[in-house]
Amino acid sequence: MPRESPDLAPAGAPDDEPAGTRRPRAAHIIGQNIGLILALSILLVSVVVFTGLFAFEQRRLPGNFEITSSVNNTMPLALAASGQTLVVLTRGIDLSVGGVIDLTNALAAIFLAGSVLHMIVVSALILLVGAAAGLLNGLLVGLGRLQPIVVTLATLSIFQGLAIRVLPQPGGSVPTGYTAVLVNPNAPSALLFVGLAVLGWMALRRSRLGVAIFAIGNDEQAAITLGIRAQRTKIIAYTLSGVLYAAGGLFLAASATSGDATTGDVYTLTSIVAVVLGGVSLFGGRGSAIGAIGGAFITTMIVNILFFAHIDPLYQSFYEGLFLVIAVVLGAAVGRLARRAR
Amino acid sequence: MNAVLSPAALRILAAYGAAVLLFVLGALIHPGFASFPSVSAILLIASFVGLVAAGQCFVILIGGIDLSVPWVLNAAAILIATSSLGENSRALYALALTLGMGALAGLANGAAIVWLGVPAVVMTLAMNGIVEGLALGLSGGMTCAACASYAPPLVRAAVHGVFLGVPAALWLWLAVILLVSFVLSFTRFGRATYAIGNNSRAAFLAGVNVSLTTISLYALSGLFAALAGILLVGFGGQASLGMGAPYLFQSIAAVVIGGVSILGGRGHYLGAAAGAVSLTALVSVLLALNMPEYGRSIIYGVVILALLLLYGREQRE
Amino acid sequence: MSAGSAAVGDNPPAASGPAAAIAAQRVGKSFGGVEALRAASFAARPGEVHALVGENGAGKSTLIKIMGGRLAPDSGTLLLDGRSVRFAGPAEAARRGIGTVFQELTLLPWMSVAENLLIGREPRAALGLIRRAALAPEAEAVLAGLGITHIDPRALAAEISLAERQIIEIARVILRVPRILLLDEPSSSLVEREVTWLFARIRELRAAGTAIVFTSHRWNEITSIADRITIFRNGAEVGTFSGIDEAEAITLMTGRRVEARYPALPAAPAAERPAFELAGATLGATQDGAPGFGFSLAWGEILGVGGLAGQGHRELFLGLFGAPPFRRSAIRVDGRPVRIARPADAIHAGLGIALVPEDRKSEGLLLPLPVRDNLTLPILSRLSIGGVIRGGAERRMTREIITSLGIRTPSAAQPVGALSGGNQQKVLVGRWLLAESRILLLYDVTRGVDIATKHELYELMARLAGEGRAILFYSSDTEELARLCHRVLVLRQGRIAASLAPPALDAEAIVAAAMREAPPPAAHAA
Fold this sequence. Notes:
The structure holds 3 protein chains of 3 kinds. By secondary structure, chain A is mainly alpha-helical. Chain A has one domain. Chain A contains 14 helices and no strands. Chain B is built from 13 helices and 2 strands. By secondary structure, chain B is mainly alpha-helical. Chain B has a two-stranded antiparallel ribbon. Chain B has helices at residues 6-29, 36-61, 69-84, 91-115, 120-138, 153-160, 168-186, 188-198, 200-205, 210-236, 245-257, 269-288, 293-311; strands spanning 162-163, 166-167. Helix content of chain C is 32%, strand content 22%. In chain C, helix 14 (391-405) packs across helix 15 and helix 17 (478-484) packs across helix 18 (507-515). Chain C has 4 domains: 22-109 and 160-254, Rossmann fold (3-Layer(aba) Sandwich), CATH 3.40.50.300; 111-155, no CATH class; 259-352 and 438-526, P-loop containing nucleotide triphosphate hydrolases (Rossmann fold); 368-435, no CATH class.
């Protein structure tokens, strides 16, 4: 019969194995961050492959120009993917990314001009527009209790319409000074912004809001029972992601130096691709914006690799699609192996 | 029979109500909007959305989604033109080839989702890219000699031909509506679909062949997208790049407006068909108002949101 | 106040004297027209363990949810220390000193045990940022203080067993030192040793003056720890007692006199050709290359399977049903070797195997779908011609089974989720009777089912065995196993530790075999 003891020995395990269910700390760290680790490994491999191809073709290593243009090209997607991560972590999905980037990109092309102060104010206002767009999504999802996928499908259409209203024809211009600050064409200084995003992510991960975002992505009902305000958390998460998309719009305008109300459309789907490549679970509650940023850089590297491998650009999306499936399947397989290796 | 339950039936009725309302509205703005030729023309446009929505409805009912619709449709349009070369003698072969391509793309989606465990969003997104790359690459970016071919007269007749005063494509859509509704309501396959959509684990433990059903549903979605692509070529004469793009969001919107839960398990194609009509009627009304493109886009989104707020709420605990 | 010296139930149950820590007065609550609570009253004092008992649907869980702040009452008042309160949510109730373990566990699966345990009170550094590296050590220390040393705080909640999750859930609430502790079926997935641990914690809290309210369907637990018992029936209290025997309590719960608790077993089957034989099966816990195990089940036999939680029962039952199949094993049905790769194989192909799974809501039923769809799902191939369902035949079969099992539903078109738990369980059993299943795998079918329905299920099992069906029955209730089965296999670490049959078969023997430290193979078998 059981002892009348307050201690709980491992149920059913023999006493000579007191730590029956325990695993080394490293195993937990690897197992619980396998998505991130995989994303960064794929990124590393793709960088190596690209470097190899480039060196073979050009008889030199990729230099400042190649690195700078890769980083600058990736910035809008890296920011969009970071925003998408916040939404996906709450177990949502945001299809309006493209619309918000269209809109903010169009606004930037029209209003960015004049003095430094003026440009700073305009940039801040554009970020606010992104926040408002995200807030609308958040309110509809949080308070309206509507499914994220259909809400953002509808708001995508609204934001796209607004973008065309703002900038009916491609045009406008972005001052070169602005471009130099955001996407300096001479040095990969935009990596600084990536660093900021990573720092921001690490702070979020250690904040009450971060815990709340992860908790509702894990199990919304349980999170509510634990005292987490799910509606408020979702509204904040969507709003923050709106700000990030707007920042993506600014970077897009800065690197294109002019505006187009439809160039942002692609980011709806590519941000999802980056998030998936970054190891963020589409079922919510698991993942990291760092991974998603890595995912964004992976997609850029793939395009670079295809270019230097002389793949017909018409086939580009074929290889990208194939790569996405293979990456996800392999990622899942490695994840399973990591979990099984106890 | 699931559709006969009251809340579900109400949603379907609401979708039909919205369609009728829009026609009335259109008639008020523009006399002749609700005339027979006008209604018939609007329904014809709606039928393309409606056909894509049939496939989308199938996969959404099991909690999935098909994002590969745009390029499967577009590739089908290219394929029917290039393989038939506009000749009736090659039409049957071309039809079989094109529908087979659509079904195969859907089959691959389903197989990867079921056997490789790839999330539906990811797999169908990737498939869209894969088909796009193949379509662009093989047609040389629509520069191939055969790419300029017209649809065979047979296919054009299947869209434009008139039977009892109604375009043939509408008869075809009506047949699809009846068939899909019957399948969903009165067959094993339909029961399995709803069972999987509600709880696939429980369905599996009750002996439902979840894998086969899921794969079949995705294959059907690819098939319907290809069918829509064929009819669009029949409608417009030629294939073009990007012609599938509007159909992804429109098909999802039609399904959702028709009262199908995006989470699966609830809803019916009868509603989705009404959703397709409502959406098309809305665009027509806005066009009748001479609304510029940006206004149409905004109102389109607002109306979807309004309808969702009206009856698309998640139920509480 | 210590165990056993409970106050006499002299104050009437509806009254809540000034001594009550928490009290509900004439509280009402309905869900979509169904009254879950009708003017129910209840009071718990500081330093007492107060059991809430009653059938499923009697309103116990609803009352706990109201007291725990998860639901707002439609009518009546909730008193905290004699003052009327209204909680905006569970978080506010928690701030007011009420700790609740709800029936639905609230651990976040993809967060670590430590994150779950310390949520909302994480160790923080400058700027209020959480010190993530300090989470696990702190959780480790906190758990050790509660006598829990075997659960790894770095593991994800999804990686630990159901029982361990329930323990963490309880620990999380205890950690916040509630003045009032509400436990809704805290022991439902715990085995004896863990229940002992829980009760030790409860006694400590009682000694410290905490008011503890808990619900349970296990009578021996109730009598061993509760100072007072309040019985609920049909959404209101029947009375509060400080000593009451089981038969009397059941009478009050059900409103009618229930005869013997367990039906008479049909005579043990003659040793003829077995219905079902398993050989060479291995479960996850056993090493590759280890010899497999097996057993045989005769027609008309109820074979029980017992043991501590997490010893491979679930895998065993699902494996027999092909969901997923064992990596290697040999299965014979009626002496014929068969291959079961997936549930459809087990159900069809003349095998007639049925599984009633652990969780009827997540694995058994399609809650929003009609009773009819739920009943006929496995037999649609028989019910249809060319894939089209024969509506008339389906209606007839559905009607018959609803009548014969006494499933209480307004119609066959009613969504099964709207039925009571017991009736849902009957729909599940009915599904397999319609499928003419001959071998029934019943996994913890009585868990969380009220006592009256439990009874009906026991009788149904006896009847089915009497008709010659073979039943494999897992239960977390050892008493039930001992009283209802012809034989009981005790699983331990993925293998059969003992096979018990009368006269050696009783609850104590099952527990002893389940917990024995080193298992000398089959030495314990009678």
